[in-house]
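[job 0412] stage=complex_fold ligand=serine status=START
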Amino acid sequence: MKAQEMRETFIKYLIERGHKEFPSASLLPDNDPSVLFTTAGMHPLVPYLLGERHPQGKRLVNAQKCLRTDDIDEVGDEFHHTYFEMLGNWSLGDYFKNESITMSFEFLTSVLSIPICKLAVTVFGGYEEIPKDTEVYECWKNVGLNESQIFYGGMKENWWGPAGKTGPCGPDTEIFYDTGKEPCGDDCSPLCDCGRFVEIWNNVFMQYNKDDEGHFIVLSQKNVDTGMSLERILAVYNHVSSNYGTDLFEPIIIRIEELTNIFRSKENIKSFRIIVDHLRAATFIIGDPKKVVPSNTEQGYIVRRLIRRSIRHLRKIGVINNILHDVINTIIEINSPVYPELKTNKEFILEQIEKEYTSFISTLDRGIKKAEHFFNNISDGGTLTGELAFRLFDTFGFPIEFTVELATEKGILVDIDGFNSKFLEHQEKSRSSAEGKFKGGLADNSVQTTKLHTATHLLNSALRQVLGDDVYQRGSNITPERLRFDFSFDRKLTNEELIKVSQIVNEAISKNIPVECNEMTVDEAKSLGAIGVFDQKYGETVKVYSIDGYSKEICGGPHTLNTGELGSFNILKEESSSSGVRRIKAIINY
Ligand code: SER
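[job 0412] stage=complex_fold status=DONE, emitting structure tokens
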């Protein structure tokens, strides 16, 4: 079976059981400042799992683009990926444990004809005041599993969520497939990680909301959130020994073999898998409707790491030429029938990946020179310090394994522990900066930033009034001291224009206009003429902040209650930000 047939089979099965299909959301989540990527199908559904009414009802199904950076080091084995597709079905306060388990079981054993004896499941075994899930245990017995196929796990194994810091979560039951590999011992079960059992589906019973203080609050609405990896179920169904043997990957590997005359073997298979996984992920991130450019921060940094790691592995298997253009084209061909954004953004994706290749290849050569310089100062059998290894990583993008490989050729060791501690220090720093920066461009929620945020909306509409409707927000960064606003416009603003813009903002402030917030669907927001990022998600409700006569914008907030709270608005600077994008820095005085 091919991937598309598997998607269709799954979705049809759930539609026949009263579910409504909705499209995949962007890989970059809208409403969660604590994560960089959509990591599960439930992510875009958080408001509905917490009780908001979904316009398509209480039973939903879809295939969602997901990305998990936590799994990056596992990539190279048979079943792990960074980017993957999650097939999921949801009950928003409708059916619960029994019906969910019955449907999953029937889909696997009747629709896909997987023998019952090949399945094993884990069930939540209880934690502190949260009881063992005996109800789920009984459900599995009732559908036909033997007790020898059912295992209780702990919090680590059988509790899922929240996806970010707070949100819906609950006990789960995970369904595994027995690959038939040798058991690792008498206790071999889905709870060990020897690789004999592969997890294919997770049914989460979202009964709790984790709040800011880490408490689990019982939800009045009991939900089901399930997720199954398309890549894995396809491999299991087709009896191929790894996800890479499916039509989602096989044509990409064949293309690399054709282009290079280098063929996969036991020695290089891990590199082949890393290359195709990472390039596929990079294609989806860059080509997302929200478009991402490789950079040194946030999502841009992840995509840079993925591309660089794949280039390193291409070199490792012996590929010298730049074959990325053809490989990326193959990835786009395979996926664009289902994800047309890849076709729409094809030129952009190819251009960004080429740019990254060119810049990394140049640092690669300079980095190798630098590494040789370091090695020359170390005698045979000596050790490269963790700090220098980290410098090669940080300045030239050399992963530690690559440095170790180069050092080994010279008979030199590398202080990997020293590298790791430098690396952790660095990771800690970048994590806190990613978390701090994510709140829609707000550094914090202080009174000052909130005021500057409202001023930013006024500025945005004033710019459109003075310069025309082709002006769109391209970025925003607000600290308690100042606002910084990037917008599309292709020349320097004249003094008159800047004065006009300031006047409009100050006029709105002097009129003491209430700032109103209303929730509505994207379609309603559009018909009211609101500006902002319109996502393709059907029926999703959004917040629209309105300042009568001046501004109407889709936004997550927060804002002041009245424009009169702002004080006088002053533009400090207008300059170029990048090609076709201008930047204004402004403050409010009191
Ligand atoms: N959210 C759960 C998971 O990611 C089920 O989809 O495993």
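Residues 523 and 539 are 8 Å apart (CA to CA).
[job 0412] exit 0
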